[in-house]
Amino acid sequence: MRSLYLNCAESLVNLKATLSKEFSNIGVFEISLSQKEQELYAKNEKEFFIELISRFENFKQSHDFVVVLGCDGFGVFGKYELNLKIAKNLNTPVFECKNLDDLRSLNKNSKLLITDDLSEILNSNQEICTPYRFENILTNRAKNAKKTIVLPESDDDRILKASDILLKKEIVSITLLGDESAVNKRASELGLDLGKAKIIDPKNSDLHDKIWSEIFERRKAKGMSEENAKKLATDRTYFGTMLVELGLADAMVSGASTTTAETIRPALQLIKTKPGVSIVSGLFFMSLDEEVLLYADCAITPNPDPEAIASIAISTADSAKAFGIDPRVALLSYSTGESGSGVDVDAIKEAARILKEKDANLKFAAPIQYDAAADLSVGTKKMPGNEVAGRANVFVFPSLNTGNICYKAVQRTANALAIGPVLQGLRKPVNDLSRGCLVEDVVNTIIISAIQAGE
């Protein structure tokens, strides 16, 4: 690691002297909370941590080692509890000499390294990604991608509110589909500023002839008539899909007030799948307290066959890589290794055979139970010698039934941030919202879509 967290300033001078033997540019990032920052923490913890993480990451870029100097506690948090929470969000191991046992007792079952051994920190590869840290990473990547996202459902307040947030933060450019006067009127009523958004009315657009002719060309072999193509060109979902296909937008997000089928059908017909990909699937990023996991397929294919399961595994591993995550894939079953048998287990074994043929370098375990995939102590017993067992971060489910149930169970019982479904396998990104989505869900899905478009 190239950073550590120090609770007490008394050790700073000696610590810097020791570190200076290995590092020439040591920076001290002091957590000194002003009254304003304390008020922000009490009012909006998420904003507080994302701002802190951003400042820390910027500070790190100009130093080859950073010592984070902790703060005194305030409010309901004691000094140690607050500093441990900050250390996790900054992904910095804690160097502690005086109160080592006390800190460790407050931090049971955590990946956060707390030690009095400096060499242990320097040799550590600690990987903690909290929900706030993950959101910060996604936001920065989306900003850097500089993409335009088309949103067909301008008649939905959640879409307008999400657009306002994203435009103010200059994360993406937005194209809204709908009547411009109606959109602006509703935005004004909600106190939103959508002045930077582009608004196109599919029923009255200069692009109409271009859109319908392109739809016709792509679908005439399937029996599409010019009349039907002209009709579809006024449909907001088809219009938005064609903006993406023609490069007039980089991605589309829809589904707040339309069904999954209505969102995906135009994409399958017009954008189609990537070369070599046989199936479109839906993944969820599950942002837990200290790590991010990928679950698939949780949204699209009810009963994938072994070929489809292997394809879903490859797509999800590729998605992990696109978001900076080194994939370790688990093909889930009710049985681990050779311990069980049956039609369902055999299907996973066949999927594993296909997966190995398609990508011999992919790290995966199959068939494997969830506990053996997620818990190292269980994994080493049930599948000894496998590099994924107990360390999986990509979980591929045998059916939509199991995948959807599991993601919702983890979301609710572990208080996980679930971002998705993120559609994978399409040539260009189109993503589907839940009709029960919150504004935050819309924002996250748009950010994910911008990153996908940048890959």
UniProtKB/TrEMBL annotation:
SUPFAM superfamilies cross-referenced by the UniProt entry: Isocitrate/Isopropylmalate dehydrogenase-like (SSF53659)
Pathway membership, UniProt: Metabolic intermediate biosynthesis; acetyl-CoA biosynthesis; acetyl-CoA from acetate: step 2/2
Database matches in InterPro entries: P_AcTrfase, P_AcTrfase_dom1, P_AcTrfase_dom2, Phos_Acetyltrans/Butyryltrans, PTA_PTB
Name of this chain's protein: Phosphate acetyltransferase
Keyword Acyltransferase recorded: yes
Record-listed E.C. numbers: 2.3.1.8
Gene: pta
Span of domain Phosphate acetyl/butaryl transferase: 134-450
Molecular function (Gene Ontology), one example: phosphate acetyltransferase activity
Keyword tags: Acyltransferase, Transferase
Listed Pfam families: PTA_PTB (PF01515)
